[in-house]
Amino acid sequence: MEQQDAGTDTFLRIDTGKPHPARMYDWFLGGKDNYPVDEELGRQLVGFAPVIPVMARMNRAFMHRAVRWVAGQGVRQFLDIGTGIPTEPNLHQVAQEVAPDARVVYCDNDPIVLAHAGALLRGTPEGAVDYVQADAHDTAAILEHARGTLDFDRPVALSLIALLHFIGDEDGAYELVERLKDALAPGSFLIMSHLTPDFHPEEASRKVSDLYRAGGLTMDMRNRERFVRFFGGLEPVEPGVVAAEDWHPELGKPVPGQENVLSGSYVAVARKG
User: Fold this and answer.
1) Which UniProt keywords apply (predicted)?
2) Domains observed in the chain
């Protein structure tokens, strides 16, 4: 399928024959910007684990709390890779509520996200919001574009929410995070969430991974040790590596339906010294 970007004469080629994580996440959150192939795999996953939509909302709630906390530490620049389809409040809305002058760059590789970039780009007059369509592996292109909006000589919060479990070790997951961390100035933060098999029975985690792989998607649910490895050289902030629902819950509101539900994700925020 081809969709035209409203702001250009360029046609965006959207692959509707294969599910995409951004569109599936949209479906889990109750959005309508997805296709039958995304819904089909989503329904298979929810049929096996009905709590997945609640888990998705718990993950997003962590992002809101983490961004609010980092902005409260004085950080005014954010780079969000693996943005997904806009679902309010978006990261820039959370950051600019704390600091109207916050500057945010979004990045995703699905053209449908670019088609909705208008919703992402409406920020405060004092701040700035930009978007780049690029694959997470292409860190050079992401950073080059982001430098048009962000000053990498000053602290930047790098947000990698529910992204890295779609990139295997053999595809350079750790290397791409290292390249991004190297570009950050002292005082910057890494915000990350990641699916893990540690909170659920091994058989259930294997079944979820198998369903994703049958849909043509990589799914690597890393355990705690492998998750912590992404933060090498950084200083974790309290409470360290925890489940999504346990990271500063006082900074947000409980997600409806989260009672007695485990998010299934490790999360952490860490500072570059």
Assistant:
1) Methyltransferase, Transferase
2) 2-271 (3.40.50.150)
